[in-house]
Specification:
Helix 4 packs parallel to helix 5. The mean pLDDT is about 95. Strands 3, 5, 6, 9, 10, 17 and 18 form a 7-stranded mixed beta sheet that branches. A 6-stranded parallel beta sheet has the order 13-12-11-14-15-16, sandwiched between helices. About 55% of the residues are buried. It contains 11 helices and 18 strands. It has about 375 residues and is of the alpha/beta class. A hairpin with a 7-residue loop joins strand 1 and strand 2. The longest helix is centred in the middle third of the chain and has 13 residues. It binds zinc ion (2 copies). One zinc ion binds next to helix 2.
Length: about 375
Amino acid sequence: MITAAVLKGPSEDLVVHDDIEIDAPGPGEVKVKMVASGVCHSDLSVQNGTIPLPTPIVLGHEGAGIVDEVGDGVTGVAPGDHVVLSFVPACGSCYYCDRGQSYLCEKGAMQVAGGLLDGTTRLTLGGEPLRQMAMCGTFGNYAIVPEISLVKIDDDVDLRFAALIGCGVLTGVGAALNTASIRKGDTVAVVGCGGVGLNVIQGARIAGAEKIIAIDMFESKLQMAKDFGATDLVKADDGDPVANVVGLSGGRGADVAFEVIGLGPTIEQTINMTRNGGEAILVGVPRMDVMLNLNAAFTFLYLAKTVKGCWYGSSNVRDDVPKLIQLYKDGQLKLEELVSREIGVEGVNEAFTAMQQGEVARSLITHTH
Ligand SMILES: [Zn+2]
Ligand SMILES: [Zn+2]
């Protein structure tokens, strides 16, 4: 029996169950004793229906733990290994993995059904199959995941902080280091300073940006943005944010601007605050029905702007997770500072509320066993 926070239906509070049955790992699968899980905005987005997934489901897709048991044919990890979960599996051999785009791995397609690679689940609650978000389900104290969803890391990294790499850090820092082409001395704008936005900011700092303009509605988030490397702060509801960013960047606009919210109006603002010939990087997760209203001639032709979508920080997890851990060990990447509160799994609904109120960077669940 394992303990996990379960979403039973759209917009319901999560319910913690300690009577979830777990099977043995199947071929190519690994049972992971979860140590910690971040509470990400995308978990909330599944709960409120922005990201539609079938229920009942164990949420959580940003976590780290220790390998407990391996199924047949698993060769990459062994019991006792420390691992970070990747919410997109990386098979290493499909069309996309072969081209260095493992964030688009074809094996990720099964995610939408909530099962593992073969479409079935290893968890059962009250006789009913229980799904796992993104083949992870890190709000459980154990999870069975495909081997290709795991990245082995050194034992000397605190798994509580390593957990954060799995989504927010790979996505945010990856957006700056992989998706965007930031040059030394660039002016960068970041719209939305939640957990992922803060990571975009520290990624931009690592990439050598000179001026980093943070834009958010919440004063509390702007202050955190400063701690992560923002040099200029723009309160989104204090005048026109586009005009404010253009004013702060020599009247031209930002060399690179990131949208890390996922709303139509803020995406349009982000593209409009990008300088001629600059890059707008879309990181936030919009609702499925969001459309954009852009002037095609000016945006793309006369002003020669590039708009790039960023899924999972354009990361190749097997290369990027070790790189990020090295940056952390070198003191360049902040992980501890991303955690605003540590909670037990029963605190997850409160963490959702806090996130909606703009209070926190990351709530971190530490599991008990
Ligand atoms: Zn996430
Ligand atoms: Zn692949």
